[in-house]
Design goal:
The chain is mainly α. The protein has one domain. Helices cover about 50% and strands about 5% of the residues. It has a two-stranded antiparallel sheet. The longest helix has 13 residues. It is extended. The relative contact order is 0.09.
Length: about 140
C-alpha cells in the first residue's frame, strides 16, 4: 500500500501476524452463562447498581431549554439504560431476600433462576430471532 508500516507502531512482522489473526474467526457461538455463588451476607441495596451516568444525563436533559416536554420524557427514559448493575451483588441480594422480592427480581430478569420461565417472559425471544436469522444467513454453520 506504499506507506511505512512502522508509522502504525507495528513492525512488518507484527503487522503480518495481525493480518493473520483477522483471517481467523475470533468469535465463538458457544455461550457460557455466568453462574454466581451467593455469599453469606446480603449487600446494601446501594451496592447493586450505579446511576451516576444515568443521573447526569437526566439532569442535562431536564435542564435543556431547546427540546419539547415529550422529547425530554423520551430522552429521560432512554437515559435509564445507562444504569450499571453489579450482577454478583444482585445475586447475593436475591439469595437473601424474601419470596416477593425474589419473584419481582426474576420478573425483571435481574436474575434468571428458571430458564423456562425466562422464555415464557420473553427474555430469550430476541436471541432466538437473532439465531434464526443467523442460520438463515449462514446455513453451513449448523
Amino acid at each position: 500500500m506504499n506507506f511505512d508500516i512502522e508509522l502504525t507502531g507495528f513492525d512488518s512482522d507484527e503487522f503480518d501476524s495481525l493480518k493473520d489473526l483477522s483471517k481467523k474467526n475470533p468469535y465463538t457461538k458457544k455461550i457460557i452463562a455466568p453462574v454466581y455463588e451467593p455469599k453469606n451476607e446480603k449487600p446494601a441495596i446501594e451496592e447493586l447498581f450505579d446511576m451516576e451516568k444515568s443521573n447526569a444525563l437526566e439532569k442535562e436533559i431536564s435542564e435543556s431549554k431547546n427540546i419539547t416536554a415529550i422529547e425530554k420524557a423520551f430522552l429521560i427514559a432512554a437515559a435509564k439504560r445507562h444504569v450499571v448493575f453489579n450482577y454478583q451483588k444482585v445475586a447475593d441480594y436475591y439469595a437473601h431476600s424474601n419470596k416477593d422480592v425474589q419473584a419481582l427480581m426474576e420478573e425483571s430478569a435481574l436474575v434468571i433462576i428458571d430458564f423456562d420461565k425466562a422464555l415464557e417472559n420473553g427474555y430469550v425471544k430476541l436471541s432466538e430471532e437473532i439465531a434464526g436469522q443467523y442460520l438463515e444467513d449462514y446455513p453451513d454453520d449448523t
